[in-house]
């Protein structure tokens, strides 16, 4: 089937015309006429978070009405491997819901709020083509004009307001080639339900219906339309996959957690669950990924939020002072001790939270003392025999591989498990690039305020560039890069690629220092993962995998060789 599209692209319309449904054929013609790229998918129109929030605000009525219906149709799909999308009439995705493992697969093509799926940008696809054809359509994987989307079978139906104007599209995507029952019917049913719910809401506003009348009407609507479900109940819980998050957790320094990726959602989900207990938390992730922000988020959202949050960076103080910093000491406890002694961090934290940053650098002998304190819930100042109760919650963080350190005998196994009661892994920024669409505008706004500069925007090309950079220094590096651009800007209202510091205009990393070697090793690992995934997706077919990755076959062979990937 895919060869039909290839024939069409090469101008062999005669071979294709009777084999492809007319709306698809028309769509292919439009795409070819507009030179839409067949090999690659470009992310040309992704709204930055401020404009996305504006759009979500403007579309509030449609989203609020559609949300419970999306839940309902997801249950009609038996919560299978599907992703449901709601777009507005300009092609921007407003809301999405789906099976997490499937959503994980689709994230490479950005089925997320704020991304525009108009046909002239993305080729034949559910949202874009239905917006033009204005009728329900099935778009099997092979009919997507842009090859990277061909792993999805899609069904989409237009949504109209009561005055007949097109206001959006409901799209359901599933794995291409899998068995799909009734999905077209469910899509049109979902769109009709949204239209009717909107009409009811309009009626309510017009005739001032009571909430009870409206509920009764709503129930009738759901039950009368749910015949396909064979007894499925209507689920009301919300799954906010991909909704941008702006998590304001501390008034004191106004730091906010920003990001919309599924990984960000699951990190915050675990963090929020951690706030309900006093269990120790171990946060692991590369430097600059936001470990401290997460620790503060847990503290500020917990019952301890009015109590102190005390930090000890184990790497920033000499080894022989870590213990006294933690537990404090009495007057004359050791040579060089301050007169009058010193209060330790555990005492300062009281019944608040103690954040042990860079725990991997904690000296071995102090690890034993810390373990004892965690187990016995009491500690002594050095040189003192007065016992203090330990009431603080402990959150530890590290960018080292503690598990490996345990194997190497550098970190105590018992302490490792004691700390890791709740474990949070923060992935590097390059593995959650969707977050850049929130982080970059957030930093621009924050830094413009800091420098008292007028507001600035980010050009789409710059977004593209930022999203394609590897960010070895993670969010901290992104923030520094933006600070550099703003500080050196010359009265511009839009930051562009030309404002990028020179070192960011290429992704090349020279080898040499061990940090750089580490970074290039990580990029190689990432590349290896992407290649293996692409090969798996196409059952080991080299030509198809190369197309999927947007590289030539020879290049792929070279990379397989270099990365020691063996195809069974
Ligand atoms: N999701 C986020 N939203 C907003 N700002 C962020 C986010 N993640 C990180 N930052 C910012 O990036 C910088 C680094 O974050 P943080 O200090 O929490 O990282 P870290 O992982 O603890 O780093 P290190 O391991 O080097 O101590 C901070 O300025 C922080 O405000």
Automatic annotation (TrEMBL):
The protein's UniProt keywords, in alphabetical order, are: ATP-binding, DNA-binding, Nucleotide-binding, Transcription, Transcription regulation
Gene Ontology biological-process entries: regulation of DNA-templated transcription
Q: Which PROSITE patterns match?
A: SIGMA54_INTERACT_1 (PS00675), SIGMA54_INTERACT_3 (PS00688), SIGMA54_INTERACT_4 (PS50045)
Please identify the protein, giving its name as recorded.
Answer: Response regulator of zinc sigma-54-dependent two-component system
Q: Molecular function terms in GO for this entry?
A: ATP binding; sequence-specific DNA binding
- Where's the Sigma-54 factor interaction domain? 257-487
CDD domains linked: AAA (cd00009)
